[in-house]
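Project standup — Tuesday

K.O.: blocked on the structure for the chain from last sprint. Re-posting the sequence here as requested.
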Amino acid sequence: MEEMADCGRIVNRIIKVASVFCLTAHLHAQPRLDVSLDALFGDRPLAFDTLAFETGEGRRISITRCDLLLSKAALRRADGEWIGAGSWAAYVSLRDGRSSFSLNGIPEGKYTALRFNIGVPPETNAGDPAKFPAGHPLNPAVNGMHWGWQGGYIFAAIEGRWRDGDGTLSGFSYHIANDGNMASVELPVELDMSQGRLLRVAFHADRIFEGLAISKENSSTHSRDSDSTAGLIRENLRHAFEMKNVTATPDFAEAVARSKALIAPEATLYRFTFPSDFPRPSLPEDNPLTEEGVELGRRLFHDRGLSGNGSQSCATCHERRDAFSDRRKFSIGAFGDVGKRQSMPLFNLAWKSAFFWDGRTPTLRAQTLEPMKNPVEMHSDLAEVRKRVVEGRHYPDMFATAFGTGEVDEDRISRALEQYLLTLVSDDSKFDRAARGQARLSEEERRGEVLFTTEYDPARGLRGADCFHCHGGPLFRSADFANNGLDSMPTDAGRFIATGRDGDSGKFAVPSLRNVALTAPYMHDGRFATLEEVIAHYDHGVSKSATLDPNLAKHPA
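H.V.: unblocked you, prediction finished:
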């Protein structure tokens, strides 16, 4: 038995060392070509969310989203041979500042052209998106560009608002997809790869709209063979790139990755499991999940001592029986204060990259401390929380078995809570069982599924509910923030509070529809008591505003 225990400890340490090696392995591929896109509209920098641009066809527009999936980059040698990695891919999201990509391990030499595809190869498009590791450009949790159950990727997503002749604001949503719409881009360049290089490329967003007179009849695309608008945009995208200049990359000293993980030598790694059709999550490398850390986090989550008056724990507003929500319109704090937003349900957090309704914290670890400090919620002082935990009967030993010593501080409290919350995975609904062939949907449920996953475009014979744009895929949510038309003048600025960008006013995190029967009332302010009220809102209650999501703004009243 002692030999088996020794083997377990050795395996755990191998895994820990391997994770540190993986952090450093990518630092040594040289030389590297970095490509940076400068987004323009005409001769001006592209400013997102502002109705300040006019197309060649005389339409006043704003652009709220410009995302691209790129693949099969290659460089052409002076002798005409193309050098590239067939498995290479990149995700570009210009509004969010993700405007660059890299090609590693390029052989030294001189090159005369850069080539890449907008879109992914047919075998990738038809393949299983869940196979890509966390952080990979083709992981749906990274790019939000996969159609979900329908299969296949969106190659390009261009969305925004437009003003017609009578001054009415509407939305456009152009999603280019399907194998026949993959486009190849080739740019001439004089490139000497004797060392790393930075290549700056202009992306002319105005060229996307050349020859396109936006109207109510062609304000969206579905990329079918007969979709002439999709074909026009595909060709326009091919010519939207222009080479600007090439410079040498800075000569940085060799970087050394240092693991900041806190983990006790004898801790047992937690076996994190999730369904095969889920994207691979990006678990925190500096906070490995262990059995001991998860149990410590569970104990803290249910500890009322974390609140100012000892009356409320995290679980008070996030009860397991209610999918870790509290079924209130607004949560009530430890001292009876009423909040301004509904308590969000806590599950599948491993697939999120921003937390709270407004996304103001980028990590789950940081999020865990906010309710404790909030005077309306748990109304506590973190120094007092630490003192109570230190004095707890079992806590010093639990911290020691999880993190190596009995030291207690804010960082370790948040790490333990993060570990526990990451293990809350929701994945076994009737829908999931039906997808696996273990259950059958009723006729009414199947009709609902068809409506849910079908777009609304009467001109092309499509009359669905168009829910999947925001709630598609196995997680039943996108990673975006959206204004879903609750108010024409938002009383809660939402995402704007976190970013300060006017285009984010009235936007909130898109919630998952998993466990939706357990998490009423609905919306960030709990204004809808039933799902029937929610559906009525989307059917005839959407309010127009400057930041209304284009996928809603394109629809008639």
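K.O.: great, moving the ticket to review. The chain has a mean pLDDT of 89. The first strand starts at residue 33 and ends at 41.
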